[in-house]
Amino acid sequence: MRALEPWVEEITLQRSDVSMIVLPPDPATTLVWRINAAGESDVLIAGPRTKASYHSGKELPVCLRLRIRPGQAMPLLGIAADELVDRIVPLSDVCTTAAGLSERLDRDHPEQAVAVIGSHLLERVPRRLPERFELIGEAVEELSSRRSVGETATRLGVSDRYLRRIFRQAVGLSPKHFARIARVRGLISENQRSWSTAAAGAGYADQSHLIADFRALMRVTPAAFATGRVPVTNC
Q1: 209: CATH
Q2: Given CB 3.0 to 4.6 Å as the disulfide criterion, which of 97, 184, 224, 234 pairs with 229?
Q3: Domain count, the chain
Q4: Domain stop point among 89, 122, 155
Q5: 108-117, 152-161, 170-179 — which is least confidently predicted?
Q6: In the record, which residues are listed under signal peptide (predicted)?
Q7: 231 in a domain, yes or no?
Q8: Are residues 12 and 108 in the same domain?
């Protein structure tokens, strides 16, 4: 659904049983439609995740995820992202008009659910957005490219304090925490062979800095994560 592209960064569909679910820290808010093994259907909102979590697998015949671009959740959901941090709530708790939405989604044709969900979300978007939302998008790009908070504020022509305030409300995290998560997510998306080389390429002071930051956000060391030695929680 092309109309969702400015708002939704990634759409994934899972239709199988998985042995383990790895959820890295994530600055984005994600809408999830799932059907469990009992055939029960629900639509959830998963807010920004400040640290990684690891769960034993479960059977989900359908699990559709729409990862909303950081900073774009508020216009779609009508709620500030900082109210959703580290929370998973039914979409109907955030948007009363979403009651009954899951019943309109066809489990036999989950691909069509994107259009149904997308139409529901886009109906809520105000015709005119405050100028700060454009600024938030620019800040996300700057911080993702490893600019400091001070450099980002200067480039955008605002004060550090103002940037921190509107960024936390729109994204759910402080600019600094967002940048830390973006950097660690970049590391785990690549097959690292040398952590010292990775540290230099990702802008860490040294390998020790990388390991400390990785462990704080992923809850394990890089070596443990690479070999699957993670603290799994039973769902």
Answers
A1: 1.10.10.60
A2: 224
A3: 2
A4: 122
A5: 108-117
A6: none
A7: no
A8: yes
Band of pLDDT at residue 158, cut at 50, 70 and 90: very high
Domain holding 215, by residue range, is 132-226
Same domain, 59 and 171: no
| pTM as predicted | 0.89
Whether pLDDT at 186 is above 80: yes
The answer to whether residues 219 and 207 touch, using CB atoms and an 8 Å cutoff, is no
Tens of pLDDT along 54-63? Answer: 988 777 788 8
Q: What is the pLDDT of residues 8-33, one digit of tens each?
A: 999 998 866 667 788 999 999 999 99
Q: Which residue has the higher pLDDT, 230 or 36?
A: 230
Residues 67 and 165 in one domain: no
For the chain, give the secondary structure using H, E and C.
Answer: CHHHCCCEEEEEEEEEECCEEEECCECCEEEEEEECCCCCEEEEEECCECCCEEEECCEEEEEEEEEECCCCHHHHHCCCHHHCCCCEEEHHHHCHHHCCCHHHCCCCCHHHHHHHHHHHHHCCCCCCCCCHHHHHHHHHHHHHCCCCHHHHHHHHCCCHHHHHHHHHHHHCCCHHHHHHHHHHHHHHCCCCCCHHHHHHHHCCCCHHHHHHHHHHHHCCCHHHHHCCCCCCECC
Kindly state whether residue 27 falls inside one of the protein's structural domains. Answer: yes
* Same domain for 104 and 140: no
Does the pLDDT at position 195 exceed 70?
yes
